[in-house]
Design brief:
The protein has about 475 residues and is α+β, with helices and mostly antiparallel strands. The protein has 18 helices and 18 strands. It starts with 12 loop residues before the first helix and ends in a 7-residue tail after the last helix.
């Protein structure tokens, strides 16, 4: 799967599969190819399915006392501010298609049926807690009050030049034309941005810092403020087969071994970089991708309360992640979008924080971290949060996960342009997939797209062109134009 075969690794690679001109292989060869063994090798299924982790603080799924400590929402569409135009986000439809396929395979059995609950992203009554400001009712002002009442305006002293830079960043990252292109076909948009982004300079050839400081000549200080300000198993073998070696327990003194014709590696590079590859030579680009790919880290804390008290405010909050605060390390606060206005207890995602805090909080003792978050919820929501906290919680810091060591890939400047083409190469009968090898990151759809690409890559290695075409037609052509 290289450029020589007409497959464009920087963009809509499936177009190349669709137009492959290749002789059909014989029945005998097809039979031999389909008899080949391939190992879908991963320390966990989460790299392929987006690190799904649902924590039930009481009972089971039917009790609705849960929070998702991994992926929690699937974007379907984007609506531009100030307009009625809504664009469907086509690549995300892969997730919904997978659910359809699974439901068909399971023949609609209730215990194995995948359903989706509408997600509430915004609420006009989300609380805005900054600088300790509260109203006469003991609660912070709502997002609507902040917008409509000048007395709640928060004065931030900043160099006006910094504002110019942040405005230009928004013009690049939030440009309606670009966002529309991404929603319609993320692969073509990715290719176009790499080639002609940033006014023709090439979107992946410049970091934000270099673009504004070196190219646009903004001062070092202003550039830094604008960009960095804010809170917010061993392998062995030859070129014909792959031998996998593993231990069932880290205390074992001997390895288990099994040999396959191919191996599809979906484990994140945050784990793969600690594996050993004896007698295996990687090209320097792939080796660097494995060893140097940066990862983001997230910590989440979910708390259970005896009632959904936030829905009983004078200005009720139904679902959403609209409550915001400047309390360090809290990040997003999300109220459950399910069972709105129901009686009984409810589980709040009281903290969803990433970047530096996602790493730092991992070093805190779990109970201390949970108490810190609970104290913040009491400070924001009042004593009702203390009174109704049941003592049940879930805390997940993904940097501590022994099978992940991270949350999602966060490649730095130039890495997409350099690394993505090498993922399309089969090296020593190994194919690398997972969200870290895709065009977007942190989404289940990213992991799915990489799995589709890896399956097509393996089929083409085996000479099964028709089967490769069938997969791209089923899973890519349905949502992305080919």
């Amino acid at each position: 799967m290289t450029g020589a075969s007409g497959i464009d690794a920087e963009g809509p690679w499936f177009d190349g599969v669709e137009v492959l001109k290749q002789k059909e292989i014989s029945v005998v060869n097809a039979t031999q190819a389909k008899a080949k063994s391939a190992a879908p090798y991963s320390v966990t299924t989460s790299s392929m399915l987006g690190m799904i982790r649902t924590a039930y603080l009481e009972g089971g799924p039917s009790d609705y006392q849960y929070q998702d400590m991994g992926p929690m929402r699937f974007p379907e569409s984007i609506q531009y501010a100030g307009s009625n135009e809504t664009m469907q986000i086509n690549d995300m439809k892969l997730t919904f298609q997978l659910a359809e396929v699974m439901n068909q395979l399971n023949k609609g059995q209730p215990n194995y049926t995948v359903n989706f609950i509408p997600w509430i992203q915004n609420s006009p009554n989300g609380l805005y807690y900054y600088s300790g400001l509260k109203g006469s009712d003991g609660l912070p002002p709502t997002a609507t009050e902040i917008k409509n009442n000048p007395k709640y305006a928060i004065e931030i002293s900043a160099d006006p030049i910094v504002g110019n830079i942040t405005d230009q960043i928004s013009q690049v990252t939030c440009d309606p034309k670009t966002m529309g292109a991404v929603a319609k076909n993320v692969f073509k948009a990715h290719k176009a941005f790499l080639d002609t982004g940033l006014g023709g300079l090439g979107g992946d050839d410049w970091s934000e810092f270099a673009y504004f400081h070196n190219h646009l000549k903004y001062s070092l200080n202003a550039t830094d403020q604008a960009i960095n300000g804010g809170d917010f198993g061993g392998y062995g073998g030859n070129s014909f087969q792959v031998q996998l070696s593993w231990k069932n327990n880290y205390t074992d003194t001997t390895f288990q071994n099994k040999t396959y014709d191919y191996a599809m590696i979906s484990a994140p590079f945050s784990k793969v970089r600690s594996w050993r590859f004896p007698n295996t030579k990687f090209n320097p680009t792939l080796k660097n991708a494995i060893t140097a790919m940066p990862y983001d880290a997230v910590c989440k804390v979910a708390l259970q309360f005896s009632t959904r008290f936030w829905e009983h405010y004078r200005q009720p909050i139904y679902g959403s992640c609209s409550t915001a605060t400047d309390i360090p390390g809290i990040g997003s606060i999300c109220y459950p979008s399910y069972k709105v206005n129901s009686t009984g207890p409810g589980v709040m995602q009281a903290s969803y924080t990433s970047a530096d805090f996602g790493i730092r909080f991992a070093s805190w003792p779990e109970l201390e971290h949970v108490q810190y978050v609970l104290n913040a919820m009491i400070e924001i929501h009042g004593e009702v949060a203390r009174e109704q906290y049941t003592g049940k919680y879930s805390r997940k810091c993904w940097a501590l996960d022994p099978l992940e060591s991270a949350s999602w890939a966060s490649p730095s400047i130039g890495m997409h342009k350099l690394y993505i083409p090498t993922y399309f190469e089969t090296v020593n009968n190994m194919i690398f997939v997972g969200e870290h090898t895709s065009y977007t990151h942190a989404w289940i759809a990213s992991a799915l797209e990489s799995g589709i690409r890896g399956s097509v890559q393996l089929l083409l290695e085996l000479g099964l062109v028709d089967e490769a075409k069938a997969i791209t037609e089923k899973f890519m052509a349905r949502w992305i134009s080919v």
